[in-house]
């Protein structure tokens, strides 16, 4: 029987704080405060204690929230791991930083691996939601069939914020030889809607966003990043998204 300790991690603005758990040598849990997993931890732990693995986990999180993909992983142990859960976790670990896959895509991959005709996407959803180590095992990168940002035990607002954090990092650090992918500046914002469209298109391509709902979310995040203002779009089609973005941009230009 392992002794469990907890540690709290203060996240940047826009995220709920995190609760870390482990035995002092390996990480066994990482949850957003207020989630069911975090609340359950308090009844399973013996207290709070700093340890090398907690320091390593905090260093990993510092890198991640700074917009960088960490090049190391804290040692972790997952209890109650069934073969199916193991397959789902392996699939999540293969999702690249800044990209998403659907529950159905993971289900199809596991079915192929096991020589089955099909696998239940709902069963995959249950295993994704069971994941005890969020962010490091990136369950936030799993989305619904139409890109719907649903099914996150840490809270949908945190899921959106995590994906936006990774998208912003892609904008800043991907294809940096292209000036249009650099962090936005006043000069960029004054240069007109064409640069907004170009930057958004490049961000979508860099993040390999292929479905309409996710395109909408990424486009809106890009618009917010460029400080164009809120663009309340109800229609998730890409064309409508860009049309609204251009309208908002031109409206701001007229106000100057």
What would you say this structure looks like, in words?
It is a single chain. The protein contains ten helices and five strands. It has 256 residues and is mainly α. Among the domains are: 5-65; 174-255, no CATH class. The protein has a three-stranded antiparallel β-sheet with strand order 1-2-3. Helix 8 packs antiparallel against helix 10 (238-255). The N and C termini lie far apart (65 Å). Residues 173-210 and 224-256 have low confidence and may be disordered.
Low-confidence runs of at least 5 consecutive residues: 173-210, 224-256
Number of helices: 10
Q: Give average pLDDT, whole number.
A: 74
Structural class label: mainly alpha
Widest sheet: strand order? Answer: 1-2-3
Number of strands: 5
| Portion in helices | 40-55%
Order of helices and strands: EEEHHHEHHEHHHHH
Sheet of most strands:
3 strands, antiparallel
Describe the structure in brief.
The protein is mostly helical and 256 residues long. The protein contains 10 helices and 5 strands.
What is the topology?
Elements: E1 5-9, E2 18-22, E3 27-32, H1 36-41, H2 52-65, H3 83-93, E4 101-102, H4 103-114, H5 121-130, E5 142-143, H6 156-173, H7 186-190, H8 193-206, H9 212-225, H10 238-255
Parallel strand pairs: 4-5
Antiparallel strand pairs: 1-2, 2-3
Helix pairs in contact: 3-4, 3-5, 4-5, 6-8, 6-9, 8-9, 8-10, 9-10
